[in-house]
Amino acid sequence: MSQNRKILVTGHAGFIGSHLTRKLLNLGFIVAGVDNYNDYYDPKIKQANVDTFRRRPNFQEFRLDILERLKLEACLKAVKPAIIIHLAARAGVRPSLKNPQLYHQVNVIGTKNLLKLAKTFEVNQFIFASSSSVYGNQTKVPFNENDVLDKPASPYAETKLAGEKLCRESGLPTTVLRFFTVYGPGGRPDMAPYLFTKAISAGRPIVRYGNGTSKRDYTYIDDIVSGIIAAIGKAWPFEIINLGNNHPVSLSDFI
Protein backbone atom coordinates (compact mmCIF):
# COMPACT_ATOMS: atom_id res chain seq x y z
CA MET A 1 0.00 0.00 0.00
CA SER A 2 1.33 3.42 -0.90
CA GLN A 3 2.85 5.76 1.67
CA ASN A 4 0.01 8.29 1.33
CA ARG A 5 -2.40 5.75 2.84
CA LYS A 6 -0.72 6.09 6.25
CA ILE A 7 -2.69 8.15 8.74
CA LEU A 8 -1.90 9.01 12.34
CA VAL A 9 -5.00 9.56 14.48
CA THR A 10 -4.52 11.13 17.90
CA GLY A 11 -7.27 10.39 20.39
CA HIS A 12 -8.18 7.22 18.49
CA ALA A 13 -9.64 5.54 21.57
CA GLY A 14 -12.27 8.19 22.23
CA PHE A 15 -15.80 8.52 20.91
CA ILE A 16 -15.08 10.23 17.59
CA GLY A 17 -11.60 8.76 17.26
CA SER A 18 -12.70 5.14 17.53
CA HIS A 19 -15.52 5.55 15.02
CA LEU A 20 -13.14 7.30 12.63
CA THR A 21 -10.35 4.74 13.04
CA ARG A 22 -12.71 1.84 12.42
CA LYS A 23 -13.97 3.48 9.22
CA LEU A 24 -10.47 4.30 7.98
CA LEU A 25 -9.37 0.71 8.52
CA ASN A 26 -12.41 -0.53 6.61
CA LEU A 27 -11.45 1.78 3.74
CA GLY A 28 -7.99 0.24 3.58
CA PHE A 29 -5.92 2.96 5.23
CA ILE A 30 -2.96 2.08 7.44
CA VAL A 31 -3.75 3.72 10.78
CA ALA A 32 -1.54 4.46 13.76
CA GLY A 33 -3.41 5.54 16.86
CA VAL A 34 -2.08 7.70 19.68
CA ASP A 35 -3.94 7.90 22.99
CA ASN A 36 -2.99 8.17 26.65
CA TYR A 37 -6.28 6.72 27.97
CA ASN A 38 -6.63 9.58 30.46
CA ASP A 39 -9.07 9.67 33.34
CA TYR A 40 -11.55 12.19 31.90
CA TYR A 41 -13.94 9.25 31.92
CA ASP A 42 -13.52 5.53 32.62
CA PRO A 43 -10.60 4.25 30.49
CA LYS A 44 -12.40 0.91 30.24
CA ILE A 45 -14.84 2.56 27.84
CA LYS A 46 -11.95 3.49 25.58
CA GLN A 47 -10.52 0.00 25.91
CA ALA A 48 -13.84 -1.40 24.70
CA ASN A 49 -13.85 1.05 21.78
CA VAL A 50 -10.41 -0.05 20.61
CA ASP A 51 -11.09 -3.75 21.17
CA THR A 52 -13.31 -3.64 18.07
CA PHE A 53 -10.29 -3.03 15.81
CA ARG A 54 -7.18 -3.61 17.95
CA ARG A 55 -6.17 -6.78 16.11
CA ARG A 56 -6.62 -5.43 12.61
CA PRO A 57 -3.41 -5.94 10.58
CA ASN A 58 -3.40 -2.35 9.31
CA PHE A 59 -3.61 -0.84 12.81
CA GLN A 60 -0.87 0.05 15.27
CA GLU A 61 -1.35 1.65 18.68
CA PHE A 62 0.95 3.98 20.59
CA ARG A 63 0.04 4.66 24.22
CA LEU A 64 1.52 8.04 24.95
CA ASP A 65 0.68 11.60 25.88
CA ILE A 66 1.07 14.31 23.24
CA LEU A 67 2.93 16.31 25.89
CA GLU A 68 5.67 13.65 25.81
CA ARG A 69 7.58 15.18 22.93
CA LEU A 70 10.37 12.60 22.68
CA LYS A 71 7.94 9.67 22.65
CA LEU A 72 5.77 11.49 20.14
CA GLU A 73 8.81 12.09 17.95
CA ALA A 74 9.72 8.40 18.07
CA CYS A 75 6.17 7.54 17.08
CA LEU A 76 6.19 9.79 14.01
CA LYS A 77 9.63 8.53 13.05
CA ALA A 78 8.35 4.95 13.15
CA VAL A 79 5.04 5.60 11.40
CA LYS A 80 6.01 8.27 8.85
CA PRO A 81 2.37 9.30 8.31
CA ALA A 82 1.24 11.19 5.24
CA ILE A 83 -1.68 12.68 7.17
CA ILE A 84 -2.29 13.50 10.83
CA ILE A 85 -5.83 13.76 12.17
CA HIS A 86 -5.52 15.46 15.55
CA LEU A 87 -8.50 14.65 17.75
CA ALA A 88 -6.72 14.26 21.10
CA ALA A 89 -7.71 16.94 23.59
CA ARG A 90 -9.10 17.63 27.00
CA ALA A 91 -12.79 18.00 26.25
CA GLY A 92 -15.70 19.71 27.94
CA VAL A 93 -16.55 23.31 28.76
CA ARG A 94 -17.48 22.90 32.43
CA PRO A 95 -14.39 20.89 33.46
CA SER A 96 -12.17 23.48 31.77
CA LEU A 97 -13.46 26.11 34.19
CA LYS A 98 -12.08 24.05 37.08
CA ASN A 99 -8.66 23.31 35.60
CA PRO A 100 -7.80 25.78 32.83
CA GLN A 101 -4.06 25.14 33.16
CA LEU A 102 -4.45 21.44 32.31
CA TYR A 103 -6.56 22.34 29.27
CA HIS A 104 -3.91 24.79 28.09
CA GLN A 105 -1.15 22.22 28.53
CA VAL A 106 -2.87 19.45 26.59
CA ASN A 107 -4.84 21.39 23.99
CA VAL A 108 -2.30 24.10 23.22
CA ILE A 109 1.17 22.82 24.12
CA GLY A 110 0.30 19.30 22.98
CA THR A 111 -0.96 20.62 19.65
CA LYS A 112 2.17 22.75 19.26
CA ASN A 113 4.33 19.65 19.83
CA LEU A 114 2.46 17.73 17.18
CA LEU A 115 2.55 20.53 14.62
CA LYS A 116 6.30 20.98 15.00
CA LEU A 117 6.91 17.28 14.51
CA ALA A 118 4.49 17.15 11.59
CA LYS A 119 6.59 19.78 9.89
CA THR A 120 9.85 18.00 10.74
CA PHE A 121 8.58 14.76 9.22
CA GLU A 122 7.05 16.53 6.21
CA VAL A 123 3.46 15.45 6.78
CA ASN A 124 1.29 16.21 3.73
CA GLN A 125 -1.82 17.32 5.61
CA PHE A 126 -2.81 18.17 9.17
CA ILE A 127 -6.50 17.89 10.12
CA PHE A 128 -7.34 19.61 13.40
CA ALA A 129 -10.49 18.94 15.41
CA SER A 130 -11.83 22.24 16.71
CA SER A 131 -15.23 22.99 18.21
CA SER A 132 -18.33 25.10 17.78
CA SER A 133 -17.50 26.36 21.28
CA VAL A 134 -15.14 28.86 19.66
CA TYR A 135 -18.19 30.91 18.61
CA GLY A 136 -18.88 31.68 22.27
CA ASN A 137 -22.12 33.47 23.08
CA GLN A 138 -22.48 35.38 19.85
CA THR A 139 -26.08 35.80 18.74
CA LYS A 140 -25.49 36.16 15.00
CA VAL A 141 -26.57 33.00 13.21
CA PRO A 142 -25.79 31.02 11.26
CA PHE A 143 -22.19 30.86 12.43
CA ASN A 144 -19.71 31.55 9.67
CA GLU A 145 -16.13 30.32 9.44
CA ASN A 146 -15.02 33.90 8.75
CA ASP A 147 -16.67 35.38 11.84
CA VAL A 148 -14.37 37.42 14.07
CA LEU A 149 -13.93 35.37 17.25
CA ASP A 150 -12.54 37.41 20.09
CA LYS A 151 -14.76 36.47 23.03
CA PRO A 152 -14.43 32.76 23.84
CA ALA A 153 -16.77 31.83 26.67
CA SER A 154 -14.61 29.19 28.37
CA PRO A 155 -11.01 28.06 28.79
CA TYR A 156 -11.85 25.09 26.54
CA ALA A 157 -12.93 27.42 23.73
CA GLU A 158 -9.82 29.53 24.27
CA THR A 159 -7.60 26.46 23.80
CA LYS A 160 -9.38 25.48 20.60
CA LEU A 161 -8.99 28.98 19.18
CA ALA A 162 -5.32 28.90 20.16
CA GLY A 163 -4.97 25.54 18.40
CA GLU A 164 -6.48 27.00 15.24
CA LYS A 165 -4.02 29.89 15.37
CA LEU A 166 -1.10 27.49 15.77
CA CYS A 167 -2.32 25.56 12.74
CA ARG A 168 -2.58 28.74 10.68
CA GLU A 169 0.94 29.81 11.65
CA SER A 170 2.53 26.39 11.15
CA GLY A 171 2.88 26.62 7.38
CA LEU A 172 1.48 23.10 7.03
CA PRO A 173 -1.47 22.36 4.75
CA THR A 174 -4.13 22.34 7.45
CA THR A 175 -7.85 21.71 7.58
CA VAL A 176 -9.64 22.86 10.74
CA LEU A 177 -12.98 21.16 11.37
CA ARG A 178 -15.27 22.79 13.91
CA PHE A 179 -17.45 20.00 15.29
CA PHE A 180 -20.98 20.72 16.50
CA THR A 181 -22.36 18.62 19.41
CA VAL A 182 -21.70 15.05 18.32
CA TYR A 183 -23.92 12.16 19.43
CA GLY A 184 -24.41 8.51 18.60
CA PRO A 185 -23.45 4.96 19.68
CA GLY A 186 -20.54 4.93 22.09
CA GLY A 187 -21.00 8.61 22.92
CA ARG A 188 -19.09 10.25 25.74
CA PRO A 189 -20.68 9.51 29.13
CA ASP A 190 -20.46 13.17 30.17
CA MET A 191 -22.55 14.41 27.24
CA ALA A 192 -26.24 15.29 27.50
CA PRO A 193 -27.57 12.55 25.14
CA TYR A 194 -25.93 9.85 27.27
CA LEU A 195 -26.91 11.42 30.59
CA PHE A 196 -30.52 11.96 29.53
CA THR A 197 -30.86 8.43 28.16
CA LYS A 198 -29.33 6.96 31.31
CA ALA A 199 -31.73 8.94 33.52
CA ILE A 200 -34.76 7.88 31.48
CA SER A 201 -33.70 4.22 31.54
CA ALA A 202 -33.29 4.37 35.32
CA GLY A 203 -36.60 6.17 35.83
CA ARG A 204 -34.87 9.21 37.29
CA PRO A 205 -35.67 12.87 36.56
CA ILE A 206 -33.48 14.55 33.97
CA VAL A 207 -31.14 17.20 35.32
CA ARG A 208 -30.84 20.13 32.96
CA TYR A 209 -29.05 23.45 33.09
CA GLY A 210 -30.86 26.65 32.18
CA ASN A 211 -34.47 27.08 31.07
CA GLY A 212 -34.32 24.67 28.13
CA THR A 213 -34.32 27.31 25.39
CA SER A 214 -30.64 26.99 24.47
CA LYS A 215 -30.16 25.42 21.04
CA ARG A 216 -27.54 23.09 19.59
CA ASP A 217 -26.82 21.55 16.22
CA TYR A 218 -26.80 17.91 17.33
CA THR A 219 -24.75 16.03 14.75
CA TYR A 220 -24.72 12.26 14.31
CA ILE A 221 -21.34 10.56 14.62
CA ASP A 222 -21.49 8.97 11.15
CA ASP A 223 -21.90 12.42 9.60
CA ILE A 224 -18.87 13.71 11.50
CA VAL A 225 -16.78 10.73 10.36
CA SER A 226 -17.92 11.23 6.76
CA GLY A 227 -16.94 14.90 6.98
CA ILE A 228 -13.48 14.10 8.30
CA ILE A 229 -12.90 11.51 5.58
CA ALA A 230 -14.09 13.96 2.92
CA ALA A 231 -11.37 16.37 4.08
CA ILE A 232 -8.59 13.80 3.60
CA GLY A 233 -6.41 14.67 0.66
CA LYS A 234 -7.68 18.24 0.44
CA ALA A 235 -4.29 19.80 1.05
CA TRP A 236 -5.47 23.41 1.23
CA PRO A 237 -2.91 25.85 2.66
CA PHE A 238 -5.36 26.61 5.48
CA GLU A 239 -9.09 26.06 5.62
CA ILE A 240 -11.74 26.18 8.36
CA ILE A 241 -14.96 24.21 7.93
CA ASN A 242 -18.01 24.07 10.18
CA LEU A 243 -18.91 20.39 10.45
CA GLY A 244 -22.37 19.88 11.85
CA ASN A 245 -26.10 19.71 11.39
CA ASN A 246 -27.87 22.87 10.19
CA HIS A 247 -31.08 22.47 12.20
CA PRO A 248 -30.65 23.79 15.77
CA VAL A 249 -32.75 21.98 18.36
CA SER A 250 -33.68 23.48 21.73
CA LEU A 251 -32.77 21.55 24.85
CA SER A 252 -36.45 21.16 25.79
CA ASP A 253 -37.32 19.71 22.37
CA PHE A 254 -34.31 17.41 22.52
CA ILE A 255 -35.44 16.03 25.87
From TrEMBL:
InterPro entries per UniProt: Epimerase_deHydtase, NAD(P)-bd_dom_sf
Record carries keyword Cell membrane: no
Matching SUPFAM superfamilies: NAD(P)-binding Rossmann-fold domains (SSF51735)
Domain called NAD-dependent epimerase/dehydratase: residue spans: 7-244
Highest taxon, organism lineage: Bacteria
Keywords, alphabetical: NAD
Protein name in UniProt: Epimerase
Species this protein is from: Candidatus Beckwithbacteria bacterium CG23_combo_of_CG06-09_8_20_14_all_47_9
Source species taxonomy: Bacteria, Candidatus Beckwithiibacteriota
